[in-house]
Amino acid sequence: MSFDQITALLVLLAVVGVLIHGRLRADVVALTGAAVLLMLGVVRPTEVQSAFASPAIIALAGLFVIAYAIELSGLLGLMIRQATKLAKRFGAAGLWAVLGMCGSLGGFLNNTPVVVLAAPVVRDVAKSLKLSPKRFLMPLSHISVLGGLLTLIGTSTNLLVNDMARNAGQPVFTLFEITPVGLAIALTGAVWLYVVGARQLGATVGADEREAAYLAALEEAEREAEAERQRKRRLRLPFGLPFLGEARTNRDGSGDAHLGDVGLFEAADRPFDLKRALIAAAVFVTVVAAAGLGLIPIAAAAFAGAVALILLRVLTAEEAYAGLRPEILLLIAGMVVIGIAIEVTGLAQAGAEALIDVIRPLGPLGALIVLYGVTLFATELLSNATVAVLITPVAVALAESLGVDPRPFLVCVMMAASAAFATPFGYQTNVLVFQMGGYSYMDFVRVGLPLNLITWAAAMIAIPTFFPF
């Protein structure tokens, strides 16, 4: 191995190890790895510049701003509130219709605000119907993630894989090209959640209420003990002043609200502004239509749409910056630099050749099955953007080594890097419902692991059907 290959491999292993450890921010870790590669000459400044100015980054930045404008206008909250009115009328079937609507929105909007707004109303409607919210909150998260498989802009993973494939000389995907595959996987997963998964999570409000009563009794005992300690402390201090060294903390010991705190949900809704909502919706539809019809690239359409929203005063420049989500953009940019290093040093080709030696007797379909499994397992440990960057160059090299079209393998990476459900901390949406639903870690394993296997099987049928080798 050359010096550049050894360096790229060591940086890759260090970045993956630190990300799995989870103590440092993912974007900082990715940027550190990119900086090391740049300083040691493994990648050139022009390649780093291309990573930060890639179409995927530009498209995501524009889409984040457009989605934030829709959220600020109150349109998203209004849609979900109207849907839940129907849910109250039609019972459990209506709730599942709301979940389906949230999944559809996930194909075009960031699924985190969708789940933030939908989760409390789904919980309250379920309780009013004497049904356990556990039956619906986890499926809400999973279905919103499955919705991201429907279009090229559904997740950052799809855009990132598309961008890296372009860098490798492959033709880019159109907006709805992956929709047939994503729809087959999403419908399979949703049906399984409806028929089997939800029934594993809870039956009635009564069971939840008994558990909640037990927990409430424990909390009350804790409060009484704390009140007694405070009373004794005040007696020891002059004039009954409170203890000045004591800081207010959450139950988890942190000083700030943490992800999953129920208090975050109610603050997310916005008052409805008809004018802003109509303009934001019109810009969004125009961007999707222009990109979907192939009139202009997705990056150009999203960028123009974001600027138009500022010029039309739907949101201010400060609000646009607030909606950019730089931690995601910088994570992706840093990982793209690492992905470029893997490709230009020949590590991707070497990895593909090693993989080929193992799976060559299985043929293209066997290779696709193995690639999906490897990607799926990696996604349970790492962010999907990280996995996409690591696996995409290998997928292209693998297909070329087998002498088949790389597109089925690229779609495989898109799907497997998102459709991973076996842990509560793999996605923000899972974390959001984890505490609200009162789930245990094993609840996610019991429901998510079979869901992983079922969507894997569906993908292995759908991908070769719509993207022949």
Description:
- By secondary structure, the chain is an all-alpha fold.
- Helix content is 72%, strand content 0%.
- It is built from 22 helices and no strands.
- It has helices at 3-21, 26-39, 45-52, 55-72, 75-90, 92-105, 111-128, 134-147, 156-167, 179-195, 205-236, 263-266, 274-292, 298-311, 317-322, 326-344, 347-359, 363-381, 384-402, 407-416, 428-436, 441-466.
- The longest helix has 32 residues, at 205-236.
- It is globular.
- The model is unreliable at 236-267 (pLDDT under 50).
Write the layout of secondary structure elements.
Layout: H1 3-21, H2 26-39, H3 45-52, H4 55-72, H5 75-90, H6 92-105, H7 111-128, H8 134-147, H9 156-167, H10 179-195, H11 205-236, H12 263-266, H13 274-292, H14 298-311, H15 317-322, H16 326-344, H17 347-359, H18 363-381, H19 384-402, H20 407-416, H21 428-436, H22 441-466
Helix pairs in contact: 1-2, 2-16, 3-16, 4-9, 4-13, 4-14, 5-6, 5-7, 6-7, 6-8, 7-8, 7-21, 8-10, 8-21, 9-19, 9-20, 10-22, 13-14, 16-19, 17-19, 18-19, 18-20, 18-22, 19-20, 20-22
